[in-house]
Amino acid sequence: MATTTLRWVISPDRAPEGSELHRRRTKSFSAADLALLVSSAAAAVSFVWFVFYQLTPFSGAAGFTLASIAVFLVVYYFANRQVFGRMAAVDRVVASLVTLGSVGVVVALGLVIGFLFVRGHSLISWHFFTHDQKGVPQTAPASAGGIGHAIVGTIEQVGIAVLIGAPAGVATAVFLNEVGGRITAAIRVVITAMSAVPSIVAGLFIYVLLITEFHYGFRGIAGSLALAILLLPNITRTTEEVLKVVHGSLREASMALGAPEWRTVWSVVLPTARTGVATAILLGIARIVGETAPLLVTVSSNTAMNLSPVHNPQEALPIFVWQYYQLPLAKDVERAFGAGLALVGLVLILFIAARLIASIKPGVTNRMVSRLKRTPKEAVA
Amino acid sequence: MSGTSSGNTPQGSAGAPDLQPPPGDYGPRHLLLSRSTQDRLYRGSVRGVAIAAFVLLFLIGLFLLLKSLPAIDKEGWGTFLTTTGWTTGGPHPSFGILAVLYWTVVIAVIALIVGVPVSLCAALFITDYAPLRVRRALVALIDLLAVVPSVIFGLWGLFLLQPNLEGFAKFLAMHFGWFPLFRSPAGNTLFSNSAFIAGILVGVMIVPIVTSVTREIFSLTPPGEREGAMALGATKASVIRTVVLPFGRGGFIGAVMLGLGRALGETIAVAIVISPTFIISGHILSPGGNSIAALIARQFGQGGQSGAEALLGAGFVLFVFTLIVNFGASIVVNRSRTGASA
Asked: How far is A74 from chain B (nearest CA, A)?
């Protein structure tokens, strides 16, 4: 008797219900639950398989998956209702619906990148990244020529856009958060609206201004300006969020030491927020690197390498993809996929860099902060 | 800090009687806010940049309007807004935005029907169901989905999504053709390049923005009310229904409107998938459809001067349209963020 009681003390779940030692498990997913889940899923899939493949003509993997999920939720609801009652059934169906929705998002992302990789990876080579399409004959295989001209174009256009858009975006955020004034609310509203301007409209604006008004012609720099219009509000909004988090006592301490406002912003606020600001800028860049529509109406295209953003049209990676997928030959479509993979690779690098920088703890790398932390100990010693 | 102050206190109290206040004027002081030249320069320059950004938005609208006026004036605004065809060249140009606007809205609505429930699920999963590690990973993946270029989505939609959805569309047309939305023209055997497929594609594309705004709003749910409901014995589903959703409703509506704004302005992905038409019809499953942004991308550089001006007019309509939707959305979201339910 004593040994059994001891065993219940060690694992109270097994103690008989009603006994003093019995405790409730707050969270449990028992074998019976698992059996319900698996059998409901199996029932749903086989039912849908029967309807789709035996009664009606084949209708695609997407339809099959969607129908299976719908049938599964119904089956799962009734099975749970039978065993646990209505409330538990609703709870479980909601939980599985929510989980399936999230899994769907991840699957979609995986399919986008996986599909691109499958179709485009065969072309990826040093040769593909360093050559242009000038003079490549129609009969040449897909591996002839490359996307070097598009890569150079994208880097130059995006680079100039960042040089214009990033400082302006950060300065606007500094104004909104640090300086302020009567126009703050109006500017914030306009920035929010600007961040949602369809990218093609930004492109059309530059087209109208530079190309039809001043007869400037299609240039890489025209694309840069359009991209800068898209970049600015993006960076402003994220940077403002970051600046808001900087503790007010840091500003006050700086002011109390007699620092002027600009010094406070430059040496205290921005350094404290620098990982956040860097993340904001990198994510902003990742977002504009793949913009196609604004470049289409401002940069035009070029099959040859053009190093200059201010003379003659340039190529860009998104434009390359847009043009080559439309061509009738399979090898051109393959080139489009290769360029698309390169583009997504670039976006991924920027994204991962942004994530890594965001994950740096400010106290670890920020020399000022770590020095401040060290000082009291040294003073005591 | 604490070590030094505790060391100083006894000394200070011991020496206090000897201390005399330093000589000086202890009367009321005149405080004056005067900024140095550098500070005024700094404030002026950041204010200048901010105002420049402000002015830019007005310029965009103004320029599009001014430049599109010649072509639209020839047509007349009434005609431009009510004509369905798009013939900009030739001896009898006749073009209007009506059919294109109609299809833009149709695609956006399909996108919302597809994207919003998925976003709601993902947002709820992140705030209420996922363990911390899964939550972080999912947030990162959804952020990544937001930066995938739309031209890549377009390729994916055309070469992977479409072949897989055609069968489903055919299935809907065959077995649910009695339902007005799934009707297709008599004898139609093609189910590609349709508003249905474009809408689903755009639906996937708006998931990140809708999810991240919704998630942020849901995470602001007062923990006290959430825990109160749980203490009363509510299941997770009823906590969501009675606490999370009512609290986040305003913000969620705003998030949906932001998604609508994105869907209306989506350009390249729609242009890649859709086969453009200029006829208003209810056949969303069969080939055909359009959107203002896709029209501009496809037709740009064609139809000479008047063609370009007509496209600018279309761009202006799109601009105004998305601006209204997004202003509404940001007002709703901001009101919801401050705690009041819309």
From this structure: 16
B49 → closest Cβ in A100, A109, A168: A168
Looking at beta carbons, which residues of chain A come within 8 Å of B272? 322, 325
pLDDT (mean) for A354-378: 60
Q: Are residues A183 and A282 in the same domain?
A: yes
Within 8 A of B194 by CB-CB distance, chain A residues are: none
Q: Which domain holds residue A104?
A: 30-120
Q: Are the C-beta atoms of A91 and B236 separated by less than 8 Å?
A: yes
3-state secondary structure of A142: coil
B155: closest CA among A292, A380, A72, A312? A292
- Flag if B312 and A355 touch (Cβ within 8 Å): no
Q: What is the DSSP string of B155-202?
A: HHIIIIIHHHHHHHHHHHHHHSTTSGGG---TT----SSBHHHHHHHH
pLDDT for B5:
42
Give the residue on A whose Cα is nearest the Cα of B117. A101
Q: Is the dihedral of CA A244, A248, A250, A251 positive or negative?
A: positive
Whether A128 contacts A147, CB under 8 Å: yes
- Residue-range domains of chain B with CATH: 80-337 (1.10.3720.10)
- Render pLDDT for A101-113 as a digit per residue (tens, 0 to 9): 999 999 999 999 9
Return the structure tokens found at B273.
């998938």
- Of all residues in chain A, the one with the smallest CA distance to B47 is A175
Q: Based on the structure, what is the number of domains in chain A?
A: 2
Are A65 and A190 found together in one domain? no
Question: So what's the ipTM on this one?
Answer: 0.82
> Tens digit of pLDDT for each residue in A250-298?
999 998 998 888 889 988 999 888 888 988 899 889 889 988 989 988 8
Task: Using an 8 Å CB-CB cutoff, list chain B residues near A99.
Answer: 121, 125, 129
Find chain A residues with C-beta within 8 A of B148's C-beta. 109, 112-113, 290, 344, 347
Question: Of A120, A138, A164, which one is at a domain's C-terminal end?
Answer: A120
* A168 found inside a domain: yes
Interface-testing mutation among A26, A111, A200, with chain B (most B C-beta atoms within 10 A): A200
Report the range of poorest mean pLDDT among A192-201, A255-264, A336-345.
A192-201
Q: Does A274 touch chain B (CB under 8 A)?
A: no
